[in-house]
Amino acid sequence: SLALGGSIASVAVVAGPSTLLPLFLCTAVFAMEALSVVVQVGYYKATKDNSGKGKRLLRMAPLHHHFELGGWSEVKIVKVAYILNAAFSLLAIIAARYV
Asked: For residue 81, what are the CA distances in angstroms to 3, 18, 30, 56, 98?
């Protein structure tokens, strides 16, 4: 998946700046998953006390594990991810048309 993301990013850079926003919108769900890990680790390190324990923003990172621990089934998480991805893809099509 890292190679696929790298190839999509290189296509966006070669095609010009007008493709960056639509491609980012298409990958928004994956970006949220990755950013949830970065934010969780950063917040944990920033709130460490003298005993070495910090606070957490999420129950567990990445984001889908947070929802699993909140009681959501895996099927529900996948359905919501598909719906969000479809919505972001529609926004990407609209952005590509008007940007």
From this structure: 22, 26, 9, 23, 26
